[in-house]
Amino acid sequence: MKLLIDGKVILALFTYVKKPEKQKIMDWSAAQHEELQLHAIATLSSVAPLLIEEYMSCQGNARVLAFLEWCESEDPFFSHGNSFHGTGGRGNKFAQMRYSLRLLRAMVYLEDETVNTDLCEKGTIQQMIGIFKNIISKPNEKEEAIVLEIQSDILLILSGLCENHIQRKEIFGTEGVNIVLHVMKTDPRKLQSGLGYNLLLFSTLDSIWCCILGCYPSEDYFLEKEGIFLLLDVLALNQKKFCNLILGIMVEFCDNPKTAAHVNAWQGKKDQTAASLLIKLWRKEEKELGVKRDKNGKIIDFENLPGLSAEDFVTLCIIHRYLDFKIGEIWNEIYEEIKLEKLRPVTIDKKALEAITTASENVGKMVASLQSEIIESQARQDVQNEQKVYAKIQATHKQRELANKSWENFLARTSNAKTLKKAKRLQEKAIEASRYHKRPQNAVFHGTDIKGLNTTVPSGGVVTVESTPARLVGGPLADTDIALKKLPIRGGALRRVKAVEIVDAPKKSIPT
Fold it and tell me: In CA terms, which of 28, 98, 369, 449 is 20 to 30 Å from 306?
């Protein structure tokens, strides 16, 4: 890249980054100039961070800041905003301001002290705060998405300049805290709008961390303006993407002795306290991690976690004793350093060191023994599972053998009369042996055998019922239309008749 682009190209690009000439009417040439200007700034955002020396030799910071002054001024500007880079810049200077801030953000986040010092000396912090205040004083709902992007970039630039510099944090001061508080008071419902409020809130939280924390006057002012309340309000929204950053800020603020009173005084919806909110977040995190609790809220033991293999349990043994191992490792390093420096500890220290070393070794032996036991138990379980599988396979084969043997016996009975007779005799003996021979007196014996059968399978009970002959009833289909489609046969349905002629009965004589 440096072989292709040099300082002359950077200087040529900067020739477009300047206030345009006054024109009453925006003609076609002026529109082309505007588009070239936006292309030049966008190109510098990618090229300038690679050529810092050339950028500084062209007075890049001064040129960009001067151009931003024009963007913020009230000078009339008849922009068409029709190009890709000019999106949202129709009749205003938002497109120019947007790309200029991108360029500054790219340079600031190089963390090059020469660039950042030069920016601070030129009043960039005060200028950024002024631009932000000017924007929020004139809300523009039509170009809301671009305005939010501009605000986010300003806060990121301030964060990059003020981080780890107390003097710059003091320059940020109360005016900077006020713009941060303004963003923190944004309606939470707008976070779901998709316009860029989430990014703006992230930039704001980052500016709290970099521009306020560590500067006690700014911290106190932030607390006085109920900044902790606003942080807890956002934390109560229960959005995981913000929780880690907010909790980190809260931890840093707790170094300030005035913070605890504000945290304890906060109340959320339904009189929720900060302690209740933090405990709720803790339980939510435990739930996501899969930590189990009993009905009383106690944590269930690790060993009962489902879905762990023997290898997992072996690892879990090490996790349980990780702190003991770490302590033992530290003491072992101390002991090795003593030997390396040929020092001889006093008797009491020597005994303590030996006791600690022995205890660490015992913990290691205990863990190794437990791991061996787990591995052996898993091996025994594998053998048992293997035996169960083999037993199941054997049972399947045995069932098949019995089925084959039954089929062979059936074929033998049906193909050989002698075998059939032999099987019949065996069946009759088995039936006779199963009967109860002691019959009560005056009891009537009903035979269940059907004489003359040559089957060797048990037959069910046969009941003969004396009933009306089917030829008289007509069978079960007598009253259906199907009876007309079949010939009346014995036991079948009867035919339907069209009509029956009735002969008049003789009239009785009336006695006179």
Answer: 369
